[in-house]
Write a structure and sequence with these properties.
single chain; alpha/beta; six-stranded mixed sheet; 23 strands
Length: 458
Amino acid sequence: MLKKLCLFLLFFYIGLHLYAVQLAVFNTTDLHGRISGILKIASLIEQQRKLYPPDSMLLIDCGDTVQGTFQGELMVKCLNYLKYDAWVIGNHEFDYPLKVVKKRMQEFSGTVLAANLRNPYLAKSHSSWKMFTKNGIKVAVIGLTKSGMSGTIPFDAALERIMPEVRAKKPNVIILGQHEGMYAKGFSIYKFIAKYPEIDLVLGGHTHVKIPGQKIGANTWYFQSGKHAAGLGKIIIDYDEKNNKIIKINSEIIPVKEDTPVDKKMLARIKPELERIKALGEQKITTMIFKNTEKLDSSIPEQKIIGYVMLKQTGADVAVRNSYPSNYKLFGTVKINLKRLYYWCRYNNTACTLTLDKALYQKIIAEQKKWQKKNYQTIITYADKNLFKKKDRVVAAFSSYAIYGAGGKFPLLRKTAQNPKYMLKNNNIIIRDSLKDYLKEKELIVTNRNGEIIISQK
């Protein structure tokens, strides 16, 4: 009896998999310009290519890819070298001016996906979704960039528009690549998938977490590969061609380890660009003298310097900056090169000003300072500390990132900026560029005087 049962189960298993084919999906997200990491990811990808037929593999990145690499050209070259099929752009792709964003999108040899992006200037540089045929399986890949940014519409509105088109093409598998995690303000992946149960696989991003695979609906699998090129996502879909259905989905994150080799061929290909970037980064801007700053975290004088330049740049009365501690010190005579300026001011934000009365200004500062509990500090630079004794209203300078709400941190500031009464002005000059231009041929002395940072010219 047992023998017959075993034979039955064996034949059942063979019958179940007789018409099975495999789709191998490989995924990265939130690389944030980690060149050393993607060189190791490249080795893992090449290892996997030896295990699966070329026409069965699909390679997808879910955004925040190029930030941190001098306008991102090198990272796009890396994606192209590795033959990524799709790139779902993230919010940090927009740290650069739109002309740079457009150029990077056009340079990508695969398909840029962002179904919820509504920017006429970028319209011809991306698609909402694309059909791929891999190992005989028709795979529809949809991309959604981070919602809530200027020029985007909500996820739901984007899918309502394109899903009829996707369904009409009758894909065997639907993959959603989103630059978003499982949850966000007003968003739950579970509720979202309940409305679109035909989506088989969701690839997440933005939140920097590792989720090696879990079920989030009756038939939907969720996966997120982490951050900073720490691992390569691998999702294997077994598909039954006869019955036109997915048999199972398995997934894992293949870790990048200390002894993971770099891809030598890729390194040789990009070495001239790496050397060019290194030389660019070492370009001297000026020299600064830091006095009595040995005990200060460097982020405090750094952000004071940036605030000082923002005051000069905009004519504002006060400049408000936010940053995380950097855990290193600045003291003595310090050479300031372009690489250091990129570290101080990592994102391509511009300086914006609002005209505020005292009560509203104080509420906005209180909103910003509440995040200090989360290791996030607010650093204020005044043109005159007695502002409100001399004026009823002051001009306050913020970064464009803060003005748009800083990813949901500053809703009051964002709401204020949307009100014409407060006279929002954006000079559209990248703060880091104005910092570089101002510091050329100047030598600043930065002094810590009983906790107060004084900036003067030598």
